[in-house]
Amino acid sequence: xxxxxxxxxxxxxxxxxxxxxxxxxxxxxxxxxxxxxxxxxxxxxxxxxxxxxxxxxxxxxxxxxxxxxxxxxxxxxxxxxxxxxxxxxxxxxxxxxxxxxxxxxxxxxxxxxxxxxxxxxxxxxxxxxxxxxxxxxxxxxxxxxxxxxxxxxxxxxxxxxxxxxxxxxxxxxxxxxxxxxxxxxxxxxxxxxxxxxxxxxxxxxxxxxxxxxxxxxxxxxxxxxxxxxxxxxxxxxxxxxxxxxxxxxxxxxxxxxxxxxxxxxxxxxxxxxxxxxxxxxxxxxxxxxxxxxxxxxxxxxxxxxxxxxxxxxxxxxxxx
Length: 320
Ligand code: GDP
Prior knowledge:
By secondary structure, the protein is an alpha/beta fold. The chain has helices spanning 45-53, 96-111, 127-138, 159-165, 182-192, 210-226, 260-267, 272-289, 309-314, and strands at residues 31-38, 71-76, 80-86, 114-120, 143-148, 171-173, 235-243, 249-257, 293-301.
């Protein structure tokens, strides 16, 4: 019975005990854990996470270092849940942005139950691979060495060299694009997880806020179109995200650059470049969300945003 003519029920107060959600009521022996995916940029970390969880979530791109934030992919099965932490590329930090990326990667390692150290068999082991290997060796959790891009190395490429760098852990060979070796890797990952109830509801595939993934997709579109002119000076901040009753998503975002001259490049003659970026970004967003998107993009100059810790935090890069 409605309490008054407005039809609003009287406030009954908080229930005394939060009931355990159904999805945490699981059989004995259920496993769950965090899997940190580390390795230098472009070895295929995002691609591997995508194929392991079976959903295209973490944006992948031929432009190195576009994965700057931690993106989680969650795989929920009847008896196990693997939470993949796709860390920013590990490299020698020179600027505050680089330092924050490394900090985010460190945090992922501290929380991890398993570490996947991913390398690319087609490229000679380098300094950044050595750093990733060191981190895997220093992590408290067990580690696997994942030698990816085997489709590019019919003769094994630099596989043996990588195996010699990390001889003490199990090795798995994969191709994230062809899918070879992925079922074996997944089986080993699930077997290595500790016994835990699931951390997330089974229908949840990522805990990254939609707007963060949205910003990443817009940035990816901008980088694909501007690659030659502005390698890494572009950031994106989603300012507004609303779902209209007609099912359309209204999204307004800032494309942030470091200098006035870059603003001109992003906007282009008569606004044409910004329009093209907007169209490509909207396609990517609609593809990902499965809904129609209205995208409002504006360009703003934040002088030297990559060097300013406050701006970096505002942009959502991991801080302390
Ligand atoms: P990340 O920076 O380590 O996350 O790397 P990405 O997953 O973004 O992959 C970087 C590039 O390598 C993309 O162009 C991918 O399509 C490509 N790539 C990833 N895995 C493989 C693989 O197994 N084989 C081949 N041929 N390309 C791959």
